[in-house]
Backbone:
């Protein structure tokens, strides 16, 4: 569904002495198979949105190639746009019409008949729990409802590939959980392929079959959440021995399983691959050596541990402010190629990604 090779995006910002080049995307390869839900994870400013904008034809890459839904993003942007749904990070700019009318207009711009657009729109309103809001203006909707309306816009033409840029940013926990269910349904009920960006670890964990981690414009990992955690971080084992004289033995035994062991008082810590398999043997060994434990803790690694192991920084600490209106100059976007169905205020690739 998505095949990208060597994508590079360089932005030139500032003027005169302030002039500098920002390498937002720096040699990205991505492959997404049909039916996969892929989470694109990285801190602020890592290059997620820029990659997404290249894949949705909103930005022409400085270098590299990509095909999306079988079409080349550089030479067949119109076909790419017809094949995908896109919900941008900022959401749609709605025109002030009723939500239902916006959705129907949007469907018709994709070539649907009014009748089909109304039927599909109503079905999506039901499915995304927007029933009763057809004749409500989007500006009078809650954040969660607007986000769900964005998703209706992205799905009205039944795309088989959906791009979601930080779909739950700014929503309260309940609205997020609700939206997660709908995103999960996209695949199970519609068989759609989903590519979503997020900087929420729990979101990537909950939704994605596979997680692609980007940092400073480069892909640093790509695997299932479980495999990433198992391969990169390992489960954390913390032994609390009952007396100081047992510390050395506990450190040796845990050290035979874990590459790095740290000791703090009577606490001995190390990370082991698949703790469930090795901890019973470790406990037997310690028992046989006469080491008594006051407590043992085993914690599954988090995606933040994975990121820390991969980059030496915590995902949260790595959050860097994105270039904003602070003298960085105008965005270096290329003009968009002609689109057959320009649409006012809708979540199509034509309008949905203004940042
Ligand atoms: N139009 C632009 N002009 C100049 N620099 C840009 C532009 N768009 C993005 N950048 C810079 O490129 C880098 C990557 O930005 P991008 O928006 O792709 O990151 P991101 O991972 O999506 O971040 P976030 O999670 O904050 O959305 C950042 O340093 C950003 O400041």
Residues:
């Amino acid at each position: 569904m998505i095949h990208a090779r060597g994508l590079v995006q360089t932005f030139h910002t500032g003027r005169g002495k302030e002039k500098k080049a920002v390498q937002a995307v720096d040699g990205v390869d991505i492959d997404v198979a049909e039916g996969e839900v892929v989470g694109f994870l990285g801190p602020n400013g890592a290059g997620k949105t820029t990659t997404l904008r290249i894949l949705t034809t909103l930005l022409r890459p400085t270098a590299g190639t990509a095909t999306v839904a079988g079409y080349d993003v550089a030479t067949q942007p119109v076909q790419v746009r017809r094949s995908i749904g896109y919900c941008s990070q900022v959401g749609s700019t709605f025109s002030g019409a009723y939500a239902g009318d916006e959705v129907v207009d949007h469907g018709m711009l994709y070539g649907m008949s009014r009748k089909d657009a109304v039927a599909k729109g109503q079905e999506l309103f039901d499915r995304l729990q927007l029933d009763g809001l057809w004749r409500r203006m989007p500006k009078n909707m809650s954040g969660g409802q607007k986000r769900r309306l964005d998703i209706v816009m992205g799905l009205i033409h039944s795309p088989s590939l959906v791009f979601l840029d930080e779909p739950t940013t700014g929503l309260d926990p309940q609205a997020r959980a609700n939206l997660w269910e709908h995103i999960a349904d996209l695949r199970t009920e519609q068989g759609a392929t989903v590519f979503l960006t997020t900087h929420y670890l729990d979101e990537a964990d909950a939704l994605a079959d596979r997680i692609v981690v980007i940092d400073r414009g480069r892909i640093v990992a790509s695997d299932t959440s479980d495999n990433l955690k198992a391969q990169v971080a390992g489960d954390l084992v913390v032994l609390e021995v009952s007396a100081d004289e047992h510390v050395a033995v506990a450190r040796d035994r845990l050290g035979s399983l874990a590459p790095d062991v740290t000791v703090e008082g009577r606490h001995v810590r190390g990370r082991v691959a698949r703790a469930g398999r090795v901890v019973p043997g470790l406990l037997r060994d310690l028992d046989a050596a006469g080491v008594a434990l006051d407590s043992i803790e085993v914690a599954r690694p988090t995606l933040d541990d994975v990121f820390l192991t991969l980059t030496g920084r915590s995902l949260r600490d790595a959050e860097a402010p994105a270039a904003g209106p602070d003298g960085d100059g105008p965005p270096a976007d290329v003009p968009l190629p002609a689109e057959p169905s320009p649409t006012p205020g809708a979540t199509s690739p034509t309008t949905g990604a203004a940042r």
User: Anything to note?
Assistant: The pocket of adenosine-5'-triphosphate is lined by residues 11, 13, 22, 24, 42, 44-50, 199, 322-323, 328, 331-332 (CB under 6 Å). The first helix runs from residue 48 to 55. Confidence is low (pLDDT under 50) at residues 320-355. Residues 235-300 form a domain with the Alpha-Beta Plaits fold (CATH 3.30.70.100).
